[in-house]
Amino acid sequence: MSQQNTDEINALIAKKRAEVLSRIASLNLPSGTAASSAGNGRSAATSTATPGTPRNMGLAPGAAGTARPATLQPAQKQLNGSSIQDTIAATRARIEARLKAQGIVGQAESKPATAPAPAPQKHTTELHPMLQDDYKASGNRFKRARLGAAPRISSVKANQPKEPEQLKVEHEVPSSFTDTSKNPYFDPTLGNRRTAGPQTRRHAKQFNFVQPGKIVALAEKRRTEARLEQLKEEIAERARKAKLEEEVLDATALQLPEPPEVEWWDAPFLVESEYRLDEENLKIEGPDSLVTLYVQHPVPIEPPAPIRNMGEAPSQLILTRQERKKIRRQRRQEEQRERREKTMLGLLPPEEPKLRMSNFMRIMANQSVPDPTRLEAEVRRQVNARLAKHEADNQARKLTKEQRHEKEMAKLEASEQRGLVSAVFRITKLSHPQHRYKVAINASQMHLTGTALSGPQQTLVIVEGSAQNIKAYKKLMLRRIDWAASLPGMDVRASEKDQMQTDEEIDYSDNACHLIWQGDITERRFSQFKQRTCPTESQAKRWLAGAGCEPFWQLAKQYDPNDSITALDPFA
């Protein structure tokens, strides 16, 4: 090392020592401490003070104003220079040894002027594969987020999550896919070789609404094409039968016949076989003419089905109760408005106020009433007069007994014109007088016709009438009458009680009534309702055969109330 470098190092050391002493002085430490801190482990050289450095630390008060530069002895300078060189050499040797151990060649000798850049420290031990974040292996950050972070603990490789392998898109379909012998599911009509393979998912199409009439037009077009094809087939079949398949008919070969001089339908009315505007040529009158004075009336033919209600007016619209009330309210409001308008115009006299006991004092408040008792009597008279008029109007509108009967019969005929219904009931026992009376009297009151035929094992009740009356009669037979009751009622006459006393030994506990048949009929088969008793089954069948109801007896015998198939819903 040259003398110049040694001087620079000594100057630098002295400068740093002065800075340390100035910092110690600013802390107001004793001189002994500063001296020991400055000279610990260093040479015994005295400090040199710079012009701006205070010198009064650790000195006597009298020596505070005198500043004398300290000078180093030659022996001390030589000692300090040799110790610094040894320190620098030892430090450089340690650095070179460390760099050689790390495999880095020192560059201090090759480039002494510039300091070498610090090389990055290399790890001598590689990290575990589970601790490395291989971000370059998977460039998709969404896949890394889905797979999650790698665990920071040791684990076997089988437990590590695997990324899904991307399918390889083959734009060219292999030959084995399009070969029908190897792939029986391949359909060549779905596309060519390039589009026959699996296709990618297409985007959803927009709505394409069918225009009105498009389907009808398409159907009509297809029907027309079908008719044309059918005509072609028929023509081909006819040509095949006539052996005209080899012949080619040209349109020019078809020659239309010339029109005749007189058409065949005009020939009987013409004298000559030609058309002329002459009355003498017409054969209208005469014995040989086809025109006669007689009019032929064809034989009338009955219609295939009876036409009912030809002369009746069309049925009116049936309104609900709320609609009828609304129409009545609107009609009354219109009449009241017209009456008020006529009163305002002077066409009608003003109506008298309707006085009542609750409002006559309010109405007569503006008038002087000399006799309140007379006014009260007048109000009561008006109230009684209005009540009497109301009752008289009701009596005038009330129908007489004959009118009510005619109205009921008219309603019955109107309901029967809509259709007749027949119902057949099977009763186990109809020997109780009270039961027989209810069955007969209700049938006659409801204008039902039929019969109650009692046999040795069962009783058959046949009724026919309007649908409304049949519905009411079914409620009577299936709900209201207690067929298992055997005690007489309070309204039974004495003669019937005597007859029931003789029938006390009959057990009605298993007695019941069932509906076995119901349907529409075209006409009545009975003129009235009658009860009949037949001692034998054959006699009952013969009597029913005369009315055309013989199958009902066999149906009643085979009826099983516990069979869900044959059982009917009586109020359906």
TrEMBL record:
Coiled coil regions, renumbered to chain: 214-248
Highest taxon of the lineage: Eukaryota
Keywords: Coiled coil, mRNA processing, mRNA splicing, Nucleus, Ribonucleoprotein
Main location: nucleus
Name of the protein: U4/U5/U6 small nuclear ribonucleoprotein prp3
PANTHER family, alphabetized: U4/U6-ASSOCIATED RNA SPLICING FACTOR-RELATED (PTHR14212), U4_U6 SMALL NUCLEAR RIBONUCLEOPROTEIN PRP3 (PTHR14212:SF0)
GO CC terms of this entry: U4/U6 x U5 tri-snRNP complex
Region spans: Disordered: 30-85, 158-201, 322-342
Ranges where the Pre-mRNA-splicing factor domain occurs: 183-400
UniProt lineage: Eukaryota, Fungi, Fungi incertae sedis, Zoopagomycota, Kickxellomycotina
